[in-house]
Design brief:
By secondary structure, the chain is α+β, with helices and mostly antiparallel strands. Helix content is 31%, strand content 21%. The chain has a five-stranded antiparallel β-sheet with strand order 3-2-1-4-5.
């Protein structure tokens, strides 16, 4: 995609998040959310991490390749995001929210 002199995409694509949500729902049946960051708690350096949960909030076990592919796809749709912080991609409404903001909303 080419950029204009202002740096914004020449042809912004607002449908990308929805298409991504549909692709991930097909790839990971039963998934409701995917939490993504570059801070894998099992690593001492920045490392891609994805945690998939179902509608009931239960963590779904995925193979490492599937989890990494899902995380990479999400990162590519939102390259401007600070991925050192965890974000949650909701497959139902195709929204990306910082995970600490999601936790704060649930506490209300």
């Amino acid at each position: 995609m080419l950029a204009t002199p202002s740096g914004s995409p020449a042809c912004p694509d607002d449908g990308r998040p929805r298409r991504l949500a549909a692709q991930l729902a097909d790839m990971i049946p039963g998934a409701a959310t995917i939490r993504v960051s570059l801070m894998d708690p099992a690593q001492t350096w920045p490392h891609l991490n994805a945690i998939v949960k179902d509608e009931a909030g239960r963590t779904m076990e995925l193979g490492r390749p599937t989890a990494r592919i899902a995380a990479r796809w999400i990162l590519r749709v939102w390259p401007e995001v600070d991925w050192m912080r965890p974000y949650i991609f909701c497959l139902t409404d195709a929204t990306l929210t910082r995970s600490d903001l999601v936790a704060a909303d649930r506490g209300r």
